[in-house]
Specification:
heterodimer; A: alpha+beta; 8-stranded antiparallel sheet; globular; B: mainly alpha; two-stranded antiparallel ribbon; 2 strands; 5% strand; rod-shaped
């Protein structure tokens, strides 16, 4: 179901995905490396894949379209910017897509939500920047949301420590 | 309703703390329904329902021969989902590690430039 734009970026809800990291750089620079194509090409994307920035249009509803290549297989991803407030806040939806930037289903799982919301905030402290990334499914069906939430819960808590223990057990087999 | 894909089925099975505790117990070795039910304050039928979910997700198997049908941990599915989850975790960590390196590189470049302002940028 369609949501109104103000829902899109509201931070009242608890987002299922949450990640924080401190970088040794002022936030103006960090915001730039997150939003400028020549910078993004240097660090963004899955390891071992050759990433190309196809285009980047830094304005609300604008697209960052990138391609990834591995073993001659090309796939595409996109960000669609929702809210741009340099240097403290960046909101975009992310999705797998085709070469024209139309969102497509994740290659690994048909029930994975089509689009994910990403809310990035940049807070400066003593010349360093605390980056907070929050997000979750958007415009998703209950089943898709359920899959994502289940996945994230397992990711965040390592299944209440269970997964780590089971992994250790699997190593011993 | 479409048939759930395998990953969704596995994640749904793992989403319950009782079922995870059952898996942990089975990591130590085979056990019967009675043995599995012992630590929990829930009925045998409830335990049986949990076992059905785990069995359907391919996380455990139950012997057809023995009268008590002991349950056994099946690790393959578990490995699949744990691989997938750690891959996702790794994706962000690797990106941020690369970003760290890249920021260091930018800083270095700036310092070199400040030290030799007449040198053109490499």
């Amino acid at each position: 179901m369609q949501q109104t734009p103000q829902n899109l970026t509201s931070e009242s809800s608890q987002h299922p995905f949450f990640l924080q990291r401190t970088f040794d750089a002022p936030r103006t620079l960090l915001f730039e490396v997150f939003t400028q194509p020549e910078h993004l090409a240097q660090w963004w994307g899955p390891a071992g894949m050759n990433l190309q920035v196809e285009r980047l249009d830094l304005q609300e509803q604008g697209l960052f379209l990138y391609s990834m290549e591995r073993d001659g297989q090309k796939s595409y991803g996109r960000f669609q910017y929702q809210d741009i407030q340099a240097p403290e806040r960046l909101v975009y939806t992310s999705a797998f897509c085709d070469e024209n930037g139309h969102a497509i289903r994740a290659p690994f799982n048909p029930n994975w939500p089509l689009e994910l919301l990403n809310i990035l905030t940049f807070e400066e402290q003593d010349g360093k920047t605390i980056l907070t990334l929050q997000g979750g499914p958007i415009h998703a069906t209950p089943e898709e949301t359920q899959l994502y939430i289940g996945f994230m819960q397992n990711l965040r808590q390592g299944m209440g420590g269970t997964l780590d223990q089971l992994e250790a057990y699997l190593q011993r087999l | 309703m479409t048939e759930q894909d395998p990953l969704s089925t596995t994640l749904a099975a793992l989403s319950d703390p009782v079922r995870r505790a059952i898996l942990m117990r089975l990591a130590e070795g085979e056990a019967t329904v009675n043995e599995l039910a012992e630590p929990f304050d829930i009925s045998l039928p409830a335990i049986s329902r949990h076992l059905k979910v785990l069995e359907h997700a391919g996380l455990i198997s139950r012997s057809r021969e023995a009268q008590w049908r002991p349950c056994k941990l099946e690790t393959e599915k578990l490995k699949e989902v744990s691989d997938w989850i750690s891959q996702y975790k790794k994706f962000w960590e690797e990106n941020f590690d690369r970003l760290d390196d890249y920021l260091r590189h930018l800083k270095q470049k700036e310092q070199n430039h400040a030290a030799n302002p007449t040198e053109p940028d490499q």
